[in-house]
Amino acid sequence: MEPFMPQLVYFEPRALEYPLGRELKEKFEKLNLEIRETTSHNQIRDLPGDNENQKYRNAKSTLVVGIRKTLKFDTSKPSAEYAIPLATGCMGHCHYCYLQTTLGSKPYIRTYVNLDDIFDQALKYMDERKPEITRFEAACTSDIVGLDHLTHSLKKTIEFIGQSEFGRLRFVTKFHHVDHLLNANHNGKTRFRFSVNSRYVIKNFEPGTSSFEDRLSAARKVAKAKYPLGFIVAPIYLHEDWKEGYRELFERLSGELAGLEIPDLTFELIQHRFTKPAKNVIAKRYPKTKLEMDEEKRKYKWGRYGIGKYVYPTEEANELETTIRQYINEYFPNAVIEYFT
Taking CA 231 as the corner, what is the angle to CA 227 and CA 237, rounded to the nearest 5 degrees? Predict the structure, then answer.
């Protein structure tokens, strides 16, 4: 698939006070893209489209160039201390994605150009925690790789963390456009992770993302560039013949990585889950989805901040975990499984 190119671009006026903002404006003008001005990256009110679904699809091809005013970083997933805010929103159309609800009425893609401010804040967090390592996650609210061929914000962040003493960076992607990142001075301090899944899940629920083959080819390049490498298998989904589907995933993964030295390979395992608000949004945006979201077939699990989600019942979840762990131990006996959730 071709790299993402927005059809419509908005700029906050203050974004042009930063070198990256000016660089992007010049780039998009040369490409003859439609450019508009907005007072705030949170206030895009005039997206084209006759109805909500059209506006949603147009939003997915709209880029907003702004500045990140709130520099307090969110605490991140189990795998990192902080989320580093480089972008918000994603060009993919994954039916199950939690961004469907967290971004709500603002599914357009935002990139932030005040990188020095963001890096200064990251340094403060590292200083507060040293001599402990501070890990930053760059893909909590976006698929940053899918955008970075335009901005190179991620590349600059990789090199910023590469020069730090106590920082580490991680992100996950479903896109294969990694060539510009291969020569970054990462110094082994950035873990590059790819999201992978069974053929059934990718085909039915991940439109607008790179193919499995392209992701694996990119993973090979990343491993050869000596990045620490990992894979997230998510969402692990109970579909017909799921055991054969996931075995094939690990067979193909093993074959593609054969002959490469990957000293610290990691896997993160996340079962499919959904919230009631997510179910409603997904049903509206993807009315023909095959995604199973029957509360009667699930177990309700309380989450952080009092927001509950529907996960697989304990017995099914245990079978999923046992099966996937077995495949990883079989095909990648030296890999570390960081968690199953």
Answer: 170
